[in-house]
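Much of our argument rests on the idea that a fold can be written as discrete symbols. In the encoding step, the backbone of a single protein was reduced to a row of integers, each denoting a local shape. This step matters because it turns folding into a mapping between discrete strings. For completeness, the protein is quoted in full, as a sequence line and a line of structure tokens:
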Amino acid sequence: MADGFAVMDAAVRDAESHDAAVRAMAELSVERRELGVLWQREVRHLPEAVRAEMLPQFRGLALRLQGLILDRRGDLGVADASLLNWAMLAVLGSPSRSRAGLSDGRLVELLEGAARTLLTAHLPADGRDSGGQ
């Protein structure tokens, strides 16, 4: 699991743009489908020392992605960028919980498109959904 996050972290760190980072994460999410579910379900069972080593890696990856979002969306505050970041990470981690009958290439395209759509999401100014009213 640690090596998978290191690979993702390097892909995001080396990306020249937010789009390149999203593409790299989508490709890695399809290639290494097990990472999302392992992190979600199994990280709590790791020895404390291993978990303590991995947590900063994951947080660093999340902060790098959030920084790319803030660079692209200057209209967002840190809290809104964080919300979009975690939503994007959830989308990009979804292949670990699904076995859709899609080719890997098509799944990468869908993940990339969903993540980019999230990036353009309009968030309510007060942080609450008006419920359509």
Q: What stands out?
A: Residues 2-119 form a domain with the Tetracycline Repressor; domain 2 fold (CATH 1.10.357.10).
